[in-house]
Automatic annotation (TrEMBL):
It is an enzyme of class 1 (oxidoreductase). Belongs to the NADP-dependent oxidoreductase L4BD family. This is Prostaglandin reductase 1. CDD domains: leukotriene_B4_DH_like. It comes from Daphnia galeata. The lineage of its organism: Eukaryota, Metazoa, Ecdysozoa, Arthropoda, Crustacea. Signal peptide: none annotated.
């Protein structure tokens, strides 16, 4: 298995990485019968996922009907949400998740052969689908990949996709930052947290990040412009917060939950705002984690604490994607992706991501 981390900066020319981001040209020939590889949810998770939770299977895809397209996965996403969402997934179903795919056969004029799309097609190499049939299931919606200039198409799964919109709307709409606010971000070196911190800097805030390795701390401070960053595994949380934010914290973007979030809440100013994106530190727990009650801090500090699911802003996704693209092009947002080579390594990439093995967005190149 090969894993690589890529950093992207500045204007669009600096983003092109031919060895990783290259896609073949537009096809004009029609495709005959195709077999798809897919990972099936074979066994319920207990603690950290293991390889025997997944089964690699092969299926023959049906012939295309009017309106159908056949697409081939180029890049696939592994994300923290997959772990808690799996509680509602029936065994035997294809693992759910987003991918950037190329249309290799089409009977739909809106999705011509050679076009790129992004959608929640799951952990599979090929898919036959009619994109005109709308579904109430958020996971099944697909759209053409927006124009990304010379950005690698994989950013459609990251900074210009669901994680980017999670950072953009989850932070701005819930925390409502003001210039000079003190903002704390947990999971700060991940796909969402690294973007939240940079958005906060754009808005004129002082930003403090918590991550899980010294290399990530260095990246946050030296490259992303965080004012302070700490390795939560090595620091005293209370002392670090007091040092970095002597006058308290105004906004907290919470990706991890657990003891770190308890420490941040206790250090917040009156009328502080908390956006809860996730609780990755708890997803693999086999026994409940005991932490102090949140209510005393909420009441006596008069805090606002709000969780969110990103599809709340489905109707505004284009706004978020356009703004994130603009900030990247202007050099105000820097992004990094950790790429794992090979579709067969989807389970390992997922496990590594849950263990904090990625910096920035975790991506599998099919």
């Amino acid at each position: 298995m090969m894993r690589r981390a890529f950093t992207r900066y500045g204007n669009f020319r600096q983003f092109m990485l031919p060895s990783i981001c290259q896609t073949s040209g537009f096809h004009t020939s029609m495709v005959t019968a195709v077999s798809a590889k897919k990972f099936v949810f074979a066994k319920r998770f207990h603690g950290l996922p293991q390889h025997d939770n997944f089964s690699l299977e092969v299926e023959e895809l049906p012939e295309l009907k009017t309106g159908d397209i056949l697409c081939e996965a180029l890049y696939l996403s592994v994300d923290p949400y997959m772990r808690p969402y799996s509680l509602g997934w029936p065994l035997g179903t294809t693992m759910k998740g987003g991918q950037v795919a190329k249309v290799i056969d089409s009977k739909n004029d809106k999705f011509p052969i050679g076009s790129l799309l992004v959608g929640y097609l799951g952990w599979r190499t090929h898919t036959v689908i009619n994109p005109d049939i709308k579904s109430k299931n958020f996971m099944e919606e697909i759209t053409l990949l927006p124009e990304l200039g010379q950005l690698c198409p994989s950013v459609g799964l990251g900074a210009v996709g669901m994680p980017g919109n999670s950072a953009y709307f989850g932070f701005l709409e819930i925390c409502k930052p003001k210039p000079n606010d003190v903002v704390v971000v947990s999971g700060a070196a991940g796909a969402v947290g690294s973007l939240v911190g940079q958005i906060a800097k754009i808005k004129g805030c002082r930003v403090i990040g918590f991550a899980g390795t010294n290399d990530k701390v260095k990246w946050l401070e030296d490259e992303l412009g965080f004012d302070r960053a700490f390795n939560y595994k090595e620091c005293d949380l209370k002392s670090s917060l007091k040092e970095a934010a002597p006058n308290g914290v105004d906004c907290y973007f919470d990706n991890v939950g657990g003891p770190l979030s308890v420490a941040v809440r206790s250090h917040m100013n009156d009328f502080g705002r908390i956006s809860v994106c996730g609780a990755i530190s708890l997803y693999n727990d086999t026994t409940p984690t005991l932490v102090p009650c949140v209510e005393p801090a909420m009441v006596f500090k008069q805090l606002k604490m709000e969780g969110f699911l990103i599809h709340r802003w489905t109707g505004r996704f284009q706004e978020g994607m356009t703004q994130m693209s603009t900030w990247i092009q202007e050099g105000k947002i820097k992004i990094k992706e950790t790429h794992t080579e090979g579709f067969e390594n989807m389970p390992q990439a997922f496990i590594d991501m849950l263990k904090g093995g990625n910096t920035g967005k975790a991506i599998v190149k099919a």
